[in-house]
Amino acid sequence: MSDRDQYIEKMKARLDEWNADLAKLEAQAKSAEADMRMQYDRHIEELRRQRDQAEKQLRELRDAGEESWERIRKSMEAAWDDMSRAFRDAADRFR
User: Fold this and answer.
1) Number of neighbours of residue 37 by Cβ within 10 angstroms
2) What are the coiled-coil residue ranges (predicted)?
């Protein structure tokens, strides 16, 4: 398996983890009081938006030619860092 394929698999696994974390937040939101529910919903919507962007970048990475692969990978790393931070912030806020 090439480095590129390994990287794509690693990112897919990370995305799967985020989807599981998002599902946990959604479950917590269902049992929250009305005012907290609104906060959960706002954060969940932002996390979904970031997740959708990460999925799009993963598809672009899979389809990228050799010349553009490195450029897309760097862009993707920044997006993943932002998403990781957003998940940590949400998890900390709703504990």
Assistant:
1) 14
2) 8-67
